[in-house]
């Protein structure tokens, strides 16, 4: 077969795969070689060496496999990168002013996107195997794949200064998934970086999590702190969290390229009413059984009730809503030290010093957890300084 004939055959295969992917509901399709540029691999390894991944040990465990698709699967020759639009219908930052309400990241206001995307990826892979005799492997972002670099190589967008993918057509609201295949498919043209001199995403970050353009320290990121971090959230970040209880959309929402974004029409990504602007007062009452029922099918369920209540109590402490104090006080006896510690922190901000002192006299000496006792001491010290 001549080179021109091979190109025509590749283009025909790509057209068929693209049409099938779009028919399955994907919003963007691109083709990349099964390799990651050495510069991107070096950046990723430097990120790990600096400890910027925090508690996400799974990143370091899979470093070599993540940095090289050939190590992940030696038979891979091409990667089909799929994008799914989850654009919101309104500005998610508007909710930050409603301090008695909880702000949940746009992507988590309905079903877990992994489930839907993996189902569609498997459907595409099955079709490719049956119709094109292709060997295939499916990956979504729980797998060790440098998907944003592959997406840029496939022409779906570019990795913006906030380190997430930006699309000319869909802005910053794009889920990604990949199908690795042994088919030799000609790659699409890589997308260029269109960020220019813009720094909006860097400057809006509440916790100053960016070390510079394209360089995120996850340990300072609210999304990491509220979702991935399993322990007590450092005091230096709590006020900056505001009412963000699961994730943070600030750097995505201010991207100027969102002027081209489209509201998602996928029912699984349309916000459930009870997750669009939930009342902190209601969330503070969740026991484990109710938490599991309310967040069934949601990515929020994965962090568990205790870490979720940890986040909600920080939002309560930032709210200035004294009416939330009784709900927080009821959690001083919670079985979880994570919850008790943040109940102390919240109450120190919701109650006058005398009322907080009464609670401290009752609860502090009986506390058997070192971290919770430290919260009582820190709150007392702050009260003395303020007094």
Overall description:
The chain has 387 residues and is α+β, with helices and mostly antiparallel strands. The chain has two domains: 277 residues, no CATH class; 102 residues, no CATH class. It is built from 19 helices and ten strands. The strands form four sheets. It has a four-stranded antiparallel sheet with strand order 1-2-7-4, with helices on both faces. The termini are far apart.
Q: In which range does the helix fraction lie? A: 40-55%
- The whole-angstrom Rg is 23 Å
What value does the average pLDDT take? 92
For the largest sheet, list the strands in their spatial order.
1-2-7-4
Distance between the termini: 85 Å
| Largest sheet: number of strands, sense, barrel closure | 4 strands, antiparallel
Structure class = alpha+beta
How many structural domains are formed by the residues?
2
User: Quick one: how many beta strands?
Assistant: 10
Order of helices and strands: HEHHHHEEHEHEEEHEEHHEHHHHHHHHH
Number of helices: 19
Shape: elongated
User: What fraction strand?
Assistant: 5-15%
Low-pLDDT sequence parts: none
């Amino acid at each position: 077969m001549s080179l021109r004939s091979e190109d025509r055959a590749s283009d025909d295969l790509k057209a068929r795969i693209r049409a099938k992917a779009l028919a399955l509901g994907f919003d963007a399709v691109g083709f990349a070689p099964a390799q990651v540029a050495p510069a991107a691999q070096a950046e990723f390894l430097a990120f790990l060496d600096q400890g910027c991944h925090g508690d996400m040990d799974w990143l370091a465990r899979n470093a070599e496999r993540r940095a090289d698709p050939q190590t992940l699967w030696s038979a891979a020759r091409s990667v089909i990168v799929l994008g799914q639009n989850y654009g919101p219908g309104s500005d998610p930052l508007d909710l930050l002013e409603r301090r008695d309400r909880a702000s949940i990241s746009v992507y988590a206001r309905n079903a877990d996107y992994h489930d839907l995307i993996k189902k569609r990826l498997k459907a595409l892979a099955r079709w490719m195997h049956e119709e094109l005799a292709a060997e295939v492997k499916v990956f979504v972002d729980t797998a060790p794949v440098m998907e944003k670099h592959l997406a840029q190589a496939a022409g779906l967008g570019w990795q913006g200064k906030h380190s997430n993918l930006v699309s000319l057509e869909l802005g910053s609201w794009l889920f990604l998934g990949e199908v690795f295949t042994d088919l030799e498919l000609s790659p699409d043209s890589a997308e260029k970086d269109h960020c220019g001199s813009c720094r909006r995403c860097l400057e809006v970050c509440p916790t100053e999590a960016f070390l510079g353009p394209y360089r995120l320290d996850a340990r300072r990121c609210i999304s990491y702190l509220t979702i991935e971090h399993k322990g007590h959230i450092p005091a230096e970040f709590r006020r900056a969290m505001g009412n963000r209880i699961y994730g943070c959309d600030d750097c995505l929402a201010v991207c100027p390229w969102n002027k081209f974004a489209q509201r998602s029409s996928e029912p699984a990504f349309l916000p459930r009413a009870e997750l669009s602007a939930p009342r902190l007062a209601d969330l503070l009452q969740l026991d484990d059984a109710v938490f599991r029922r309310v967040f069934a099918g949601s990515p929020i369920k994965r962090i568990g009730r205790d870490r979720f209540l940890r986040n909600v109590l920080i939002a309560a402490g930032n709210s200035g809503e004294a009416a939330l104090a009784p709900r927080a006080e009821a959690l001083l006896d919670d079985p979880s030290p994570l919850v008790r510690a943040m109940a102390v922190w919240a109450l120190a901000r919701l109650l006058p010093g005398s009322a907080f002192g009464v609670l401290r006299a009752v609860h502090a000496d009986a506390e058997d957890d070192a971290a919770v006792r430290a919260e009582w001491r820190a709150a007392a010290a702050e009260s003395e300084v303020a007094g």
